[in-house]
Structures are given as C-alpha cells and as structure tokens.
Design goal:
By secondary structure, the protein is mainly alpha-helical. The chain has four domains: about 70 residues; about 50 residues, no CATH class; about 120 residues, no CATH class; about 50 residues, no CATH class. Helices cover about 65% and strands about 5% of the residues. It is built from twelve helices and four strands. A two-stranded antiparallel sheet has the order 1-2. Helix 5 packs across helix 6, helix 7 crosses helix 9 and helix 10 packs antiparallel against helix 11. It is extended, with a radius of gyration of 28 Å.
Length: about 300
C-alpha cells in the first residue's frame, strides 16, 4: 500500500513538473526579458524540481533499508507470516519456539507481488552485451589524459615489479607503458574504463600458472563470451565465493620480509611502509586514500629528518 501510494505520488509530481517546465520554456522563448510573472513561474519550477528530487531520494533510502531488513517466517504454506527481528521473538515465545530459522530478504517488488530470497547474497543480474562505440569519449578524456595515464602507469608498474620479483622474470617498463597506452586508446572509443594492472586479477592469473601475455587474450575472449551468453548463469554464485578467490590469490603475494628489512634499515621508511599497508587495508574501496596518507606521512617524515 505504501509503495503504491508513493509511486502514484511521484508520478503525479513528475507529470506536474514536466507540464510546468514545458509551459515555462514556451513562455521564456517568446519573452524578450524575464518579467516578474515569468520569474515567479521559474521559481515554482525550481521549487518543484527540488521537492521531486528530495522525494526520490527519500524513496530510494526507504527501499534500500527495506531490502536490507531481515524477515523471519512463522507458519507453513498459506499460513506463513513474515516478521521483523524485533517482532519475531514475541511470536516465537507465544508458540513455544526458540529458533527463528533463516533470515529472508525482499528481492523484488512489482505489481503487488513480493519476491523473497534466503541464504547468502548472490551476485544478482549481470548486464549482458558489450559496450557501444562512441567517439565523444575520446574528446571527454583529453583534459585528464595525462593524470589518468600517470596514475594508471604507476599502479601497473608497481604490480609488474611484484610479479617479476615473484617469477624472476625480466621487466620492461617501456613495454609496459606501450601496452597500457595501446589498451587505453582502443578501450576509450568503446566507453571503457581506463585500464591498468590489477593486483588481485594479476594474482589470480599467475596462480593459474599463466606464463605469457597471451593469457590476457584468452581472458578477454572468455569474458566477452560470458557477457554475451552466460550472464543468466552468473546470477546465483554468492559474493563470498568471489571474495574467497581474490583473498586466496592475493594472500600469497603479501611479503612481510621487505617490511622488516625497511624497518631495520631506516625507521622512517619502515613506518611509511606500515602506514601504507594499514591504511590501504582499512580504507577499501577507496584504496588510494592509503597512498595519500602514506605520501603525507612520508613528506612529514622528510621535513622532520631535514
């Protein structure tokens, strides 16, 4: 009932806003100057826009909290009733039960039908298809091209050094820069994110005993095939499964010995290393804040030492 009323109210407000906006645009095109009446109408349009945005945000927060609220079932078949956590205890006490059973969560709500699911959270619906082609992305990225390329290259080369130290292979920074630049040039015209080396995915790749860069080509083919044909099958795997794969792969690349060596050689470098590790570990998903805090601490330590 609440959702139906909210949806109807939002629909009425949206229709009213479109009518006022269209009427104001028509009068503004014909008027040479904005008189007092037209100014008042523009204020009404902006006020209604603000109220509409505020109402949408309230509805979004309400649904987010509603979908995250655990529900507990009591009864069987058509007699099943679902209760919130604060209500189920009294229901169980009246029935002489103790275990409320597994928690249920609202998965969907449409046309008066509520979809429920239990167990761990799943990945959910994965969008199918490949990104479209758009030249305007190239023009959009020109202003920040240098910044993006520098940050991406620094991240990529640091990961490549870690991989080279583990596999004892030669590393060519020039080749890494050329490869990353070519990848970004091709990806930019398809609205792709700027690419760089990924610590977790590189760890998974090397633990799969990949030897050459052709393994990335195989990965691209498999991912493209999955996006085109296998997205319905990717709905049900729990998110914890993906987390376990990444944690298992990355844990083998964490080396404590260089941190101990840095601490013994230079206390300032050792503290910077520990600060970087702790902040990067404690501030996900905004992991770059760890690097920023480490850089600030390093700058302060240099000023103190000088």
């Amino acid at each position: 009932m609440y959702d139906s009323l909210e949806r109807k109210h939002l629909s009425n407000m949206t229709d009213k806003f479109h009518v006022l906006q269209q009427d104001y645009d028509t009068k503004a095109e014909d008027a040479e100057d904005e008189d007092e009446k037209l100014l008042t109408q523009r204020q009404d349009v902006e006020q209604l826009r603000f109220m509409l945005d505020q109402k949408k945000e309230q509805s979004r927060i309400h649904h987010k909290e509603l979908y995250a609220t655990p529900l507990y079932a009591d009864g069987k078949g058509e007699q099943t009733r679902f209760y919130a956590r604060e209500d189920i205890s009294s229901v169980l006490a009246a029935a002489g039960k103790e275990d409320p059973g597994p928690a249920w969560f609202i998965k969907s709500y449409a046309s008066g039908v509520v979809g429920l699911e239990t167990g761990g959270k799943v990945i959910g619906k994965v969008p199918s298809g490949l990104p479209g082609f758009d030249w305007s992305v190239i023009m959009h990225l020109i202003g920040v091209m240098i910044t993006i390329s520098l940050i991406g290259f620094m991240e990529s080369i640091s990961i490549a050094k870690a991989m080279a130290a583990k596999t004892r292979q030669n590393l060519s920074p020039d080749g890494e820069l050329i490869g990353q630049g070519m990848g970004n040039i091709v990806g930019s015209v398809f609205q792709a994110y700027p690419v760089s080396g990924s610590f977790s995915r590189s760890a998974v790749n090397i633990n799969a005993e990949a030897v050459t860069g052709f393994s990335s080509v195989i990965t691209v083919i498999v991912v493209a095939f999955a996006l085109l044909f296998l997205t319905p099958l990717l709905y049900y795997p729990p998110q914890a499964t993906l987390a376990a794969v990444i944690i298992k792969a990355v844990s083998g690349l964490i080396s404590v010995r260089p941190m101990i060596h840095a601490w013994r050689a230079n206390r300032h470098d050792g503290i910077v290393t520990i600060v970087t590790f702790v902040f990067t570990l404690c501030l996900p998903p905004i992991w770059n804040w760890g690097s920023c805090w480490a850089w600030c601490f390093r700058w302060c330590s240099c000023c103190y030492a000088s």
